Amino acid sequence: NAGVMQNPRHLVRRRGQEARLRCSPMKGHSHVYWYRQLPEEGLKFMVYLQKENIIDESGMPKERFSAEFPKEGPSILRIQQVVRGDSAAYFCASSPADRPYEQYFGPGTRLTVT
Amino acid sequence: DQQVKQNSPSLSVQEGRISILNCDYTNSMFDYFLWYKKYPAEGPTFLISISSIKDKNEDGRFTVFLNKSAKHLSLHIVPSQPGDSAVYFCAASALGAGSYQLTFGKGTKLSVIP
């Protein structure tokens, strides 16, 4: 059973460009979460999605950031007009519907903004 | 304001001895707690969890203790092995409030010395 898949693993963007991060949940999992880890910090919650629905986006910056989890395909975290402060590791987690607190994490995408 | 605190950034333990990692929280709404282990350049791996209705949960070499009145939990690893060397994150969730987002501490780096 494959775990949570994230790609790309490393992403380099210049200031002002767009970054798209992808996450495929574990088989059978219908809940997806995105977290961000800044250097020397713990992981910070960004957004919680189910298929075609955003359930909790209380951790998302109000501008430039968006997330989706379409009916078909992976979940996408999109960052428009990236700035240096967006450089971080972005982790996706998934959980089964009946145990949403059991979150399993992917390997992360390391975004570097130059 | 950090709601989950891991006050020891690092800990060194001899192989075969007990490792004790501590975590404090401030939010009374937290009712589910998890420990994750993380190696560099990888995602967090779930280790063990505990609900607030319990004060202890054990899984092999790992035991988590919860003291609700002190808002404190600890992870015991016995016996410690060199492969346990990693960063350990404490996380909390407020399931009763309908929130599945995890709030993480900043982590404790455990080094097990052979």
Descriptive overview:
The complex is a heterodimer of chains A (114) and B (114). By secondary structure, chain A is an all-beta fold. Chain A has no helices and eleven strands. In chain A, strands 2, 4, 5, 6, 9, 10 and 11 form a seven-stranded mixed sheet that branches. In chain A, strand 7 (65-68) and strand 8 (75-79) form a beta hairpin. The radius of gyration of chain A is 13 Å and the shape is globular. Chain A starts with a strand and ends with a strand. Chain B contains no helices and eleven strands. Chain B has strands at 4-5, 10-14, 19-25, 32-38, 45-51, 56-59, 62-67, 72-77, 86-93, 103-104, 108-113. In chain B, strands 2, 4, 5, 9, 10 and 11 form a six-stranded mixed sheet that branches. Chain B is globular. Chains A and B meet through strand 4, strand 5, strand 9 and strand 10 of A and strand 4, strand 5, strand 9 and strand 10 of B.
Strand content of chain A: over 45%
Order of helices and strands of chain A: EEEEEEEEEEE
What percent of the residues of chain B sit in helical stretches (DSSP H or I)? under 10%
Structural class of chain B: mainly beta
Counted by DSSP, the helix tally of chain B is 0
Please give the largest β-sheet of chain A.
Answer: 7 strands, mixed
C-alpha termini separation of chain B:
38 Å
The chain-level mean pLDDT of chain B equals: 95
Question: Which regions of chain A contain 5 or more consecutive residues with pLDDT less than 50?
Answer: none
Quaternary state, please? heterodimer
Tell me the total number of β-strands of chain B. Answer: 11
Report on the biggest sheet of chain B. 6 strands, mixed
Shape of chain B: globular
Radius of gyration of chain B: 14 Å
How many E strands of chain A? 11
What is the SS-derived class of chain A? mainly beta
